[in-house]
């Protein structure tokens, strides 16, 4: 074929786009230089009498507020000088510096007016940066002021950070002058929360009295609306009598009537405050129908015995973030249905949770390759139907609006296994065996593989603490920890020398410390782990010689209000006796 008749060669190289980063930075620097040198400025903005020559094009590119001003039929679009109202001149100077340089300078003394200026000028980056800065720099001396500011502008992340600090330091914060500047709505919002870290409810009453007396004549009429947020059910009769004798109450018969009405009606939904509760591990004994409530660091434990008909046999237990305790149990007269029971703290009884039953796969009796697990994430209960023989995990989540269990994405394991554990950590569920680890993302309804576990013959027990998932094997020969943020595993050292004589019962976390309950020659032992020293030490805890059965991946832990366990009002329902270490 002649050269002229040949088809032209088509290049396989595709076109590309290139971005000159140095140009982008240089362009912004040049614009900043023009501003400093006063070149090509075509508008003057006047704030509190100060004049700021600027460029309409630059302002319009940076802010929707100025874009609307200069591109519409507004009078300002034609004026050489525009007066801006509602702005602080110093803050506007900071805003202009950001617009022309891309650099924002934030400090605690100016973050609030800077946010207000950015909010008016619709500068999203400045608003978001100020919001994050406030949330990261909440202190006891500033939490009330920042809380009030966040409340006005609906800054949820700042409100949450302030509220957490106020809850943890309520007695100190309530004694400050700033506390008395709260509005009545802000006050009731704070004192209505369960998370107040206080030992006695009288602390809340005293804070309310101080707030009212700060401006007695203006605030006294708010008391009838505030009083229902005080948990009179947590006060002794002497405390209530003292409140009724207080001058604020005695001078207004209507207020004393409100208190008596609140006390008489009661409110079972008002839980004990966080600081009134004790974090305790729950050990179940099905033979004697009892639960042992124990805080290992404090030594004593409380043993409660229940009527057989009121004590469901737990397949698994889950404790929600709002301290509700749920039991997954086989439904009576059904081989393929499971029920959910819920613990009534105030009455110390187990009640049907009022949820629809959940279906499980049919299986043979004592089929050790199948497990039924219950996990809670972000207030939602998940049921995992585990079939290790076929490597399938069917999962359903409970929809409280429809009272239905909805199917989630199926998880298929790569390898057969004889061991497994399911743990919630942060917003995710982690399912692991000694050979693999998978993470469930509820927002995407999908499972993803994570780093493989290392050097553990089997996963007998696992719990989450912080951002880590701790695992141990059945003979306590090895434990490892998985970092959910870095997706990597690490061995823990410092095991007791006689570890080969131990048999793992379960891991649990109390007061942000990792514990393990072991059996050795039929005796229960409790060890606590020191992360800084990478070592385990034994606690002096003498437990009854009974069999506490394992359910799920670790022993459940919940915050318990001890007077509920020791109260006389429940004597007809359960027998409860306080045991000390010599029992």
Query: How many strand units?
Result: 30
What are the segments in which pLDDT stays under 50 over at least 5 consecutive residues? Answer: 568-583
What name goes with the CATH superfamily of the domain at 277-330 and 419-579? Kelch-type beta propeller
The computed structural class is alpha+beta
Q: What spatial order of strands do you see in the largest sheet?
A: 29-4-5-6-30
Euclidean distance between termini CA atoms: 105 Å
Task: Give a brief rundown of this model.
This protein is an alpha+beta fold and 583 residues long.
Describe the structure.
The protein is an alpha+beta fold and 583 residues long. Among the domains are: 21-103, Potassium Channel Kv1.1, Chain A (2-Layer Sandwich), CATH 3.30.710; 169-265, Serine Threonine Protein Phosphatase 5, Tetratricopeptide repeat, CATH 1.25.40; 277-330 and 419-579, Kelch-type beta propeller (Neuraminidase, 6 Propeller). It is built from 17 helices and 30 strands. A hairpin with a 6-residue loop joins strand 5 (290-294) and strand 6 (301-305). It is globular and about 90 Å long. Mean pLDDT is 86; it is low at 568-583.
């Amino acid at each position: 074929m002649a050269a002229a008749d040949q088809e032209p060669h088509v290049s396989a190289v595709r076109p590309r786009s290139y971005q000159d980063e140095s140009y982008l930075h240089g362009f912004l620097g040049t614009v900043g230089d023009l501003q400093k040198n006063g070149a090509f400025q075509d508008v003057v903005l006047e704030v509190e009498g100060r004049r700021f020559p600027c460029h309409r094009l630059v302002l319009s590119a940076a802010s929707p507020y100025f874009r609307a001003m200069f591109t519409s039929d507004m009078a300002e679009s034609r004026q050489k000088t525009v007066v801006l109202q509602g702005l602080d001149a110093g803050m506007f100077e900071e805003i202009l510096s950001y617009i022309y340089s891309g650099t924002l300078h934030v400090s605690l003394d100016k973050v609030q007016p800077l946010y207000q200026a950015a909010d008016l000028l619709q500068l999203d980056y400045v608003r978001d940066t100020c919001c994050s800065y406030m949330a990261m720099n909440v202190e006891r001396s500033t939490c009330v002021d920042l809380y009030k500011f966040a409340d006005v502008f609906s800054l949820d992340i700042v409100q949450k950070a302030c509220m957490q600090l106020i809850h943890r330091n309520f007695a100190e914060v309530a004694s400050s002058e700033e506390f008395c500047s709260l509005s009545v709505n802000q006050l009731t919002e704070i004192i209505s929360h369960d998370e107040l870290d206080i030992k006695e409810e009288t602390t809340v009453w005293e804070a309310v009295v101080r707030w009212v007396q700060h401006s007695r004549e203006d605030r006294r009429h708010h008391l009838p609306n505030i009083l229902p947020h005080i948990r009179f059910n947590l006060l002794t009769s002497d405390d209530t009598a003292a409140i009724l004798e207080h001058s604020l109450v005695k001078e207004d018969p209507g207020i004393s009537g409100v208190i008596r009405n609140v006390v008489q009606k009661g409110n079972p939904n008002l839980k004990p405050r966080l600081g009134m509760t004790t974090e305790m591990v729950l050990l179940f004994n099905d033979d004697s129908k009892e639960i042992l409530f124990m805080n290992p660091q404090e030594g004593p434990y409380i043993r409660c015995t229940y009527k057989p008909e009121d004590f469901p046999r737990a397949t698994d237990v889950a404790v929600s973030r709002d301290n509700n305790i749920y039991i997954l149990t086989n439904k009576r007269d059904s081989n393929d249905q499971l029920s959910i029971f819920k613990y009534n703290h105030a009455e110390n009884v187990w009640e049907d949770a009022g949820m629809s039953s959940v279906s499980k796969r049919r299986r043979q009796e004592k089929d050790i390759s199948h497990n039924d697990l219950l996990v809670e994430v972000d207030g939602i209960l998940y049921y995992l139907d585990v079939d290790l023989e076929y490597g399938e995990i069917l999962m359903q989540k409970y929809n409280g609006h429809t009272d239905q269990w909805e199917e989630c994405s199926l998880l298929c394991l790569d390898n057969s296994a004889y061991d497994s554990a399911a743990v919630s950590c942060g917003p995710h569920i982690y399912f692991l065996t000694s050979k693999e680890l998978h993470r469930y993302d509820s927002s995407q309804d999908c499972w993803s593989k994570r780093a493989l576990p290392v050097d553990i013959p089997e996963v007998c027990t696992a719990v989450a603490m912080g951002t880590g998932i701790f695992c141990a094997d059945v003979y306590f020969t090895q434990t490892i920890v998985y970092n959910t943020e870095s997706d990597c595993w690490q061995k823990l050292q410092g095991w007791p020398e006689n570890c080969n004589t131990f048999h793992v019962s379960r891991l649990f976390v109390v007061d942000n410390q990792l514990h393990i309950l072991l059996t050795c020659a039929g005796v229960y032992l409790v060890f606590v782990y020191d992360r800084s020293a990478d070592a385990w030490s034994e606690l002096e805890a003498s437990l009854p010689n009974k069999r506490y059965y394992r359910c799920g991946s670790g022993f459940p832990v919940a915050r318990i209000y001890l007077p509920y366990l020791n109260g006389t009002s429940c004597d007809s329902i359960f027998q409860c006796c306080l045991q000390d270490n010599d029992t």
